Amino acid sequence: EDNVLLRRFFAQPCHRAWLEPRYHQINDARQIRKELSESVALLEELRDILPEMGSGWHVVDLCCGKALTGGLAALWWPELAVSAVDRLEPRF
């Protein structure tokens, strides 16, 4: 993989959760590399500027689509409260 953001993501143990069936809808996305790169970049920036992020924080992922960013935030910070909001009906 030549994308630095994706290499860093797959070097973390939390990526293994994506192998679970509940994440298969996300894994099948056609643009997953682009979306994953964008989500990882955002979350890395949050981690860098808010090192105390975690317990007591609530992240709201608005216009979330498949809720990739919110889902990753929940994997990176398990004690974080995450809400994902979109107009589209969930398909799973």
Notes on the structure:
- The chain has 4 helices and 2 strands.
- The protein is an alpha+beta fold.
- The radius of gyration is 13 Å and the shape is globular.
- The mean pLDDT is 84.
Features:
92 residues, two-stranded parallel sheet, 4 helices
Helices and strands in order:
Elements: H1 4-11, H2 24-27, H3 32-49, E1 58-62, H4 68-76, E2 81-85
Parallel strand pairs: 1-2
Helix pairs in contact: 3-4
What's this model, at a glance?
This protein is an alpha+beta fold and 92 residues long. The chain has helices at residues 4-11, 24-27, 32-49, 68-76; strands spanning 58-62, 81-85. The model has no long low-confidence stretch (mean pLDDT 84).
